[in-house]
């Protein structure tokens, strides 16, 4: 019965799709969870909670084409721990990336994130074991934290989180992206050289081995996190 394990996993994934999905409406700043959609731009799916699946669409950036939302910008020191909070358990098997873009106009509230301006500040990849198991530290959590580099330059930024749900990612555009953009005013910064810089959309084609992937069978022997390496300052 060598197919029973992956089959039951696949069935579990199908059943859980009937449940509500999730959004990413809050940050953790100075240890406090921010009110929903206060410092994060309200996304189109704030009701439906539906994901983005087209990595080339304009909504792949901040998912605000319908809400046209801006948020209020929250101040945080470089070098401090921050976090992202979902409105529920991020139960889909998947991975997480957090990107930031320095507001080239100096104002995160009016910055639209155009151009080659995005760098990765955090990621939570899959954990593989040569094909015997795969696990998802970025899944079945409702929040995560990480530390902003001390050398992050002072200035205003967009901070964009994506949880990439991979339960039905074996066909093109099957991966589901749960996305939201917050607005940060970084103080006490340093003189780091941000990069590598990418554009969003543009950073992915949808054919990446970590996006177009059957996570069930055969169990992937390795996992390649989508996007550029994390900027460590
Ligand atoms: C695993 O590594 C191989 C060799 O580098 C690569 O071709 C493949 O795309 C990787 N698989 C995943 C799922 O990242
Ligand atoms: Cu879902």
Automatic annotation (TrEMBL):
Cofactor(s) needed: Cu(2+)
InterPro entries from the UniProt entry: AA9, AA9_LPMO
Enzyme category, top tier: oxidoreductase
Gene Ontology cellular component terms for the protein in this record: extracellular region
Signal peptide extent: 1-20
Auxiliary Activity family 9 catalytic domain ranges (all copies): 21-218
Reactions listed under catalytic activity: [(1->4)-beta-D-glucosyl]n+m + reduced acceptor + O2 = 4-dehydro-beta-D-glucosyl-[(1->4)-beta-D-glucosyl]n-1 + [(1->4)-beta-D-glucosyl]m + acceptor + H2O
Record Gene3D superfamilies: 2.70.50.70
GO MF, any single term: hydrolase activity, acting on glycosyl bonds
Enzyme Commission numbers on file: 1.14.99.56
Biological processes, Gene Ontology terms: cellulose catabolic process
Alphabetic keyword roster: Carbohydrate metabolism, Cellulose degradation, Copper, Disulfide bond, Glycosidase, Hydrolase, Metal-binding, Monooxygenase, Oxidoreductase, Polysaccharide degradation, Secreted, Signal
Superkingdom in the source lineage: Eukaryota
Subcellular location as annotated: Secreted
Family: Belongs to the polysaccharide monooxygenase AA9 family.
Listed name of the protein: lytic cellulose monooxygenase (C4-dehydrogenating)
